Hints:
The protein has helices at residues 2-15, 24-29, 32-41, 43-54, 68-81, 87-94, 100-107, 109-120, 137-153, 155-158, 178-189, 213-216, 221-246, 275-280, 325-332, 337-342, 412-426, and strands at 62-63, 163-164, 172-177, 260-267, 305-310, 350-355, 361-364, 371-375, 391-396. It contains 17 helices and 9 strands. Strands 3-4-6-9-5 form a 5-stranded mixed β-sheet. The chain has a two-stranded antiparallel ribbon with strand order 1-2. The protein is α+β, with helices and mostly antiparallel strands. The longest helix is centred in the middle third of the chain and has 26 residues, at 221-246. Helix 5 packs antiparallel against helix 6 and helix 9 crosses helix 13 (221-246).
Amino acid sequence: MEEVSSKVEKEEKEENIDNKVEEEDEIMDGKKSEEEREDNETDDDSEEEEEEEKDLRPPNKVAKVPSKAFWNLISDLYVSSLPINNISAFRNFLVKIPGQSSLIIRKNITGLISAFNQAFVFFDEKGKRYKRRHFEPEEFFEVILPCIIRRAFAFPTLFPNGIPLLPSNENGRLRFTRVQVSSVIANMFLCILPNEGYPIYPNSDRFPALSFADLFTNNTTSYVGKLCCFLNYFKRLAIEEIKLKSDNVKNPELSCPKGYIWIRRQVLDEKYQSINYWKESNKPLLPVEISFERNKNIDDAEGTIQIDFANKSIGGGILGRGAVQEEIKFSTYPEHLMAVMVTAILDDNEAVLITGAEQFSSPNGYGRSFEFGGNYVDTIEEDKYGSKLRTTCAIDAVKFSNGSNGYGQIHPQAFIRETKKAFSGFMDPLSVK
């Protein structure tokens, strides 16, 4: 493995690839020509957003672009692993990819095989095989996995200049096509990006570690539930590709799904962080409407901003042991994983808003009992591009344990911390000056 990494490093130096980002829109949309066409078609929309963009600085940090040599290596490893028609062959491909993820998978071969087998075969409460399957093995190897491979290998085309990032303490908004997002998730699934074999992040910010390796190597209920949600996401994309191909659409993996995902990092100005500001404020509270409907959850609240009870590291344990509100949200809305990719760990005065994501799966259970509840058809209204008119607001609270430490949450400083955290998520950056 060290020889493989050295070979890639040598070829990269010879290529002397220039990763400098020339234009923000080119980064976000992958192809400048596509952006120009859309701008010509949507002059009115651009004018409405012009004032907003002035207050949102473009990202000054970009995830490193893997070289042509790296992608040639991954392609060669894939070809040498064919045919991939069973779990063992799939595992053999994953362990060839340079990086820490391959070591995790290599150490837990049994876990990976067991996790996928449980995704393929549904078990009842007594551990007996049930009459239906979540996914047929043939369906995964012949339909779903090829879709994942195609989208993962489209990465160099979709991100010629790298992935823009949202570093700490900087306001910023990014826009990605949903096709770009699918490529990033496909690379996460295959444990290609990011990994320690090919670091892509700047060193000055802390970004979440991303790899499906831990998810692949644990066969407990919640882990398998999340795995099934992601398999269902790619199954849906594969079905759409097949439909487009039947209509003679070339490269259908670059044509669906339609629409965009917007990710905004909002940083609260320093003057709003002082306890004196809140003490001296004479602004009235806005009217609040509280409603409760049995058997409904946050996802059912259309026309509202939906709160993500976030971890300061966006996504929390989505690719690990976590299976509570945030992780369930990100499992059933896989496109939220793009925020995990680009968002540095949140400070006390920051929040993240994600707009445009689609719900692909239904949840069942909570925590350790979380399971894939089946496919979900999201009927929420869309804009003219195909983006879902839904926004998720990620704000992280301070954890207070039971006992004496629990009283700390009513301390003035703790109260102010939670107030400014909520304000950072709910504020309109144009109206807060």
